[in-house]
Structures are given as structure tokens and as C-alpha cells.
Design brief:
Blueprint lengths: L3 H5 L7 E6 L17 H9 L4 E3 L7 H7 L12 H4 L5 H4 L2 H9 L2 H4 L7 H10 L9 E6 L11 E6 L1 H13 L7 E2 L5 H12 L7 E4 L3 H4 L7 E6 H9 L9 H8 L3
Parallel strand pairs: 5-6
Antiparallel strand pairs: 1-3, 1-4, 2-3, 4-7, 6-7
């Protein structure tokens, strides 16, 4: 599937399709079972032409399993995810079990400090739109490599600020309202999978700007953010390219500095 949007905004990377399937793609890259990995690194690889696959044993980390849509994996987090993303759990880290865990997860002792306290962190986790997909696999692949009849659940654009500006304008171009793009707080994988999955259920779904997750930033270039849309919204935006500002000189002038 070729994208008019990608061509019109001069994307460096391919849009990435997220596909739920029971068929494992051939020659797809995949984390080893039981080994840590960041789903955003796989997203970056897909944007550069690879196909990546995840299943319930190879989602990389508990946050990735949750964010991709393999159910609430945070219930398996040692000492509570609400402590890890806030102020840490020193008491647990002083136990025999905790001493072993903290060797591989030093942030557990003092916390990532992304949320002010464990109480607020728990409310954040409880507010997430947990999804438990019915498919065996979740696949990241370049949009143009979709097989015939293959339908993505969401499409992810990895874009720089100029391209992001164009996508925000285009997302609102054919709508009666002007709040059709949101920037929710969440892990990188939350913002490219489960939060956009939830938007898919709306009559007029919104686009999600993501990868503001500090821990995921090192997996992508410094000027890159994600812009994720459910398939329904992607098709709407594709139809709106022709006749829009993307064909005007003002946008073309901005594009020149990205060539």
C-alpha cells in the first residue's frame, strides 16, 4: 500500500503498519524468548524496511507486552509498576528477592520519576486502555509491504517537526472540530499501539502523537516523534491530500529544508 501522505510530506522513513495476525511473517526479526528488548527499537527497524513480529513470549519487556496489546502484563512486575515509574521501592530492594531484581533493574530502587508518587502512578496505569488481542502475533511492517488483503489496525508515521506539523493540519483538515490530535502521557509502545487501538472504536478517531517517553527516545533519531492513526482515519487523511495545503507553495517551501 503506497501512501500519498508519505510522499507529500517527504518522509525519510516508511509508514509502519501494525497488523494482528495468526500467521508469522517469513524472515521477520523477533526478540528471543525470555530476553529483554524495547518494542520501539523494532518500530524503528520496521520504518527502515524490516518486518518485526511479537508474540506472548517475545514482546521484550512487560511494558512492551502491555503496550503492544498482549493484556495487562504489569500485574507481573516485581514490587509494583507504580513504584518503578515513580519514586522506587527501596523496601522491596532490601529483601533477598529484591536484591536479585535490582541488579538487573537498578531504577527500581529510586524509580524513574516520571510520575510524582506511586498513588498517581497507579491511577495512570489503571486508566490505560488495556487490550488483549485475539491474534497470535502482532507485526510491525513497512506500509508498502502489506500483502494483498492484509489490513492494518493502525499506521505509524515517524516524523520530524515539519512533517508532524503537516500531519496535524491534515488530521483537522476535513473535520468540524480542531482537537483531532492528542499527545497523551504514556510509554512509547502505549502511544503507538493500545491508545490508538482505543481510538479506533470512536466514530471520529483522533491521531496520537507519541514517543515522548524519555526511556524510548534513545531508540529513535533525536528529531523524531510518532504520529499514529487508526486505519479509518488514515484512509480519511489519504483522501484529503489532493486539493489540500500539501499541494501549495507554502508547504513546498517548508519541505525544501528537509531535502
Amino acid at each position: 500500500m503506497e501512501s500519498k501522505i508519505a510522499k507529500s510530506i517527504g518522509m525519510k522513513y516508511s509508514p509502519v503498519a501494525v497488523v494482528l495476525t495468526d500467521k508469522k511473517p517469513e524472515q521477520a526479526i523477533q526478540f528471543k524468548e525470555g530476553r529483554w528488548g524495547c518494542a520501539v527499537s523494532m518500530l524503528n527497524a520496521a520504518a527502515k524496511g524490516r518486518t518485526a513480529v511479537f508474540d506472548r513470549n517475545t514482546f521484550g519487556c512487560l511494558g512492551g507486552g502491555t503496550g503492544l496489546g498482549f493484556g495487562n502484563q504489569y500485574v507481573n512486575f516485581p514490587a509494583g509498576i507504580e513504584y518503578f515509574i515513580s519514586t522506587g521501592n527501596k523496601e522491596f530492594c532490601q529483601t533477598e528477592i529484591g536484591k536479585n531484581v535490582v541488579r538487573n533493574m537498578p531504577a527500581l530502587e529510586h524509580g524513574e520519576r516520571y510520575v510524582k508518587n506511586p498513588e498517581l502512578a497507579k491511577k495512570f496505569i489503571d486508566s490505560l486502555p488495556m487490550v488483549d488481542v485475539l491474534s497470535e502475533y502482532i507485526v510491525f511492517k513497512p506500509l508498502e509491504k502489506l500483502d494483498e488483503g492484509e489490513q492494518p489496525k493502525v499506521i505509524i508515521f515517524l516524523v520530524n517537526p515539519d512533517q508532524l506539523s503537516a500531519l496535524v493540519v491534515l488530521a483537522n483538515y476535513g473535520r468540524e472540530t480542531n482537537e483531532n490530535v492528542v499527545v497523551p502521557f504514556g510509554a512509547g509502545c502505549h502511544t503507538v499501539c493500545i491508545i490508538p487501538y482505543k481510538e479506533e472504536e470512536a466514530e471520529n478517531p483522533r491521531a496520537i502523537i507519541g514517543l515522548s517517553d524519555i526511556s524510548a527516545r534513545k531508540q529513535v533519531d533525536k528529531d523524531i516523534l510518532s504520529f499514529t492513526v487508526p486505519l479509518k482515519m488514515f484512509l480519511e487523511m489519504e483522501l484529503n491530500v489532493e486539493g489540500s495545503f500539501l499541494e501549495n507553495e507554502e508547504w513546498k517551501k517548508v519541505m525544501e529544508r528537509n531535502i
